[in-house]
Every structure is written in C-alpha cells, then in structure tokens.
Design brief:
50% of the residues lie in helices and 20% in strands. It is of the alpha+beta class. It has three domains: 1-33; 34-92; 97-217, Protein of unknown function DUF881 (Alpha-Beta Plaits, 2-Layer Sandwich). Strands 3-2-7-1-8 form a five-stranded antiparallel β-sheet. It is rod-shaped. InterPro entries: DUF881. Residues 39-80 form a coiled coil. Pfam families: DUF881. This is DUF881 domain-containing protein.
C-alpha cells in the first residue's frame, strides 16, 4: 500500500516538475522577447518611416498649393478671355447697349397741302440716311440703329426701289435713327446752322430731334462671316 502511495507521489512530483520546467521555459522566452539588436533596428526603421511620412506630407501640401494656384490661374485666364470676348462683341456691335443719346425721326414731305397744292416731290433717299449716320458718328456716337437695325462696320444702307434696305432688311418712313453718345454734342452736330438738317428741312423733309437720358439699341442680328479676309500673322 505504501509502495503504491510512493508511486503516486512520484508521478505527481514528475508531472509537477514537467509543468514547472515548461512554465520556466515559456517565461524565459517571453522575458527575452525581441532581441535587443532587432529592437534597435525596428526603432530606426520606425523613425525613418516617420521622417519619410513627414517629407511626403510636405510634398503633398506643396503639390496641393501648386494645384490650387494652377486652378486659380486657369480661372483668371478664362475670366480674362471672357472679358476680351465681351469687349470684342461690344465693339463689333453684336450686343444690345444702353445709354444717353438722341432720337432722330425723319419722314417724307407731305405730298400736298389742303386744296391739292403740291408741297414737295422730294423723298428721303438712302444717301440722306447715310449722311445723318455719318454726322452722328463724327459727333461721337458710339452706337447707332435705323428702325431697329444696328449699324455696324459691314452694314449697308442702299436703295432697293421703292424702299431702302439696311442690313438687307427693308425699312420705310418714318425713319427712326437712334444714337448713343453725349446728347448735346450729337444734337449740335445735326442742328449746326447751314448743316445737314437745315438742308434737308429746306427740301421739305420732316425732321425731329429728341435727346434722351436712356436709349436701348439692339445688337446686330445678321451673320458676320469672313470668307476671304484673313488675319495677318506676325512673322
């Protein structure tokens, strides 16, 4: 009986010994952990990665700043191009404009007085309208129209009997000529003694000139196409 007891105690002691040995080895392994040399290497690598990350962040911020500047430059360039296009369209007469100016109304003389007596056989001609337009231009008119037709560089005012064509559109009396500019200068240029208006009135043409603080002149509605004229390239 005692022999069996000693045998059991011996087995228990053996098992306990094995457990203690195993635990000691595991603890020792844990205590050792990562070798000191390897830990230093990892620490160096970590610091290098942090430096690389900081450098990349600086480069990313610099690139972002350059991208924002490029976008800003593109927006400014687009805005400058749009401003130039708007200015060119304004100078070409392609857009409606408003401002102070004068309104000139011209009509043919009455054909006869009461009782049938002829007054004048004169009728307004295309050259009369052209001369009035030129007088207004010479006086500083910045925009002109005749019966709603904008006068631009390639506009024509010509006789197409028995009517007058402006921009290939038929116009008939009374003719309403609108001119934007300094009203006093425009009116004075037309009403100068011995000038164009006095001459036309002597012929019986009915002319009325009115100044306005605000007129609206439409833009040119026709096509502007250059088939033969080309810009001269520098060099």
């Amino acid at each position: 009986m005692q022999k069996a007891t000693y045998l059991s105690l011996g087995l228990v002691a053996l098992v306990l010994g094995l457990l203690v040995t195993f635990q000691f080895r595991v603890t020792r392994h844990i205590e050792q952990g990562i070798p000191a040399g390897r830990a230093q290497e990892l620490a160096l690598e970590l610091r290098q990665l942090e430096r690389d990350r900081a450098k990349l962040q600086v480069e990313a911020a610099d690139l972002q700043s350059k991208l924002e500047q490029a976008n800003k430059g593109q927006q400014e360039a687009a805005r400058a191009i749009k401003d130039e296009m708007d200015k060119a369209r304004l100078l070409a007469g392609l857009v409606a404009v408003t401002g102070p100016g004068v309104e000139v109304t011209m009509d043919n003389p009455p054909q006869q007085r009461e009782g049938g007596t002829p007054v004048s056989l004169y009728v307004i001609r295309d050259e009369d309208l052209l001369r009035v337009v030129n007088e207004l231009r010479g006086a500083g008119a910045e925009a002109l129209s005749i019966n709603g037709q904008r006068i631009v560089a390639n506009s024509e005012i010509r006789l197409a009997a028995p009517f007058i064509n402006v921009n290939l559109s038929r116009v008939a009396p009374p003719y309403h000529i609108l001119a934007i500019g300094k009203p006093e200068d425009l009116r004075s240029a037309l009403e100068i003694p011995g000038g164009l208006v006095e001459y036309l009135r002597d012929l019986g043409v009915q002319i009325k000139i009115q100044t306005h603080d605000r007129l609206i002149i439409p833009g040119y509605g026709g096509k502007m196409e250059f088939r033969y004229a080309k810009p001269v390239l520098k060099g």
